[in-house]
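Sharing in case it's useful to others searching the archive later.

Someone asked me privately for the predicted structure of tRNA (guanine-N(1)-)-methyltransferase, so I'm posting the question and my answer publicly. Question first, with the sequence:
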Amino acid sequence: MRIDVISIFPEYFAPLDVSLMGKARAKGILDVRLHQLREWAHDVHKTVDDTPYGGGPGMVMKPEIWGAAIDDVIAGGEGLPRLIVPTPSGRPFTQAVALEYAAEPWLLFAPARYEGIDSRVMIEYGSRLRLDEVSIGDYVLAGGEAAVLVMVEAVARLLPGVLGNAVSAVDDSFAPGAMENLLEGPVFTKPPVWRGHEVPEVLLSGHHGKIARWRRDEALRRTLRTRPELIERGELSAADLRAIES
Ligand code: 6GU
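And my answer, the predicted structure tokens:
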């Protein structure tokens, strides 16, 4: 997968060299290309923002600079990327959206600083390619860069060959399928007793059916405790209902 990011802080993306994503890049699974937005600003101060029409606080990013940058990045590839503009006023980024993005050959992220990008940029590219304005949660960041890091990591770990254990994304919290809308339960490793705390006996039993049932019950109980709004009682089996009522 190719990922382009246009930002006034390309150095913000240094974490993409580390760990899982560093390895995915080294293996050629992930081709990340960072671009300095200011390279498309031609005045002596490399200005990318201006005061908002209609007044108000802060600055707005200039459309000509973003337009030139996006056009050049698009011209340097095959086909058209999916354009993703992070903004707290966008649609929520979820595991389902991460899975959608993981199926794309090319993503272009356009994180903004200040009060955002002149809205005509979204109108222009919304008609030329597939554009998503997305938010990573109900809080406000100082800019979209941290949101891009979050989204790239969520997408990259879904690409074939990135996770060590090919099945581990299947059991993720929020993953479609059996775990849809359930949070993952607790996990344990050796030793069997630590500071007097024992690993639940069922996990040592070797009984795969009982272990799967126990894990699902724990996931149901944890979800009911921390995210009750995720539980759709109509979709639960009798055994599921017993787990949350006990
Ligand atoms: Cl995508 N950007 C900014 N600036 N703040 C956010 C966000 C994005 N998602 C949640 N808060």
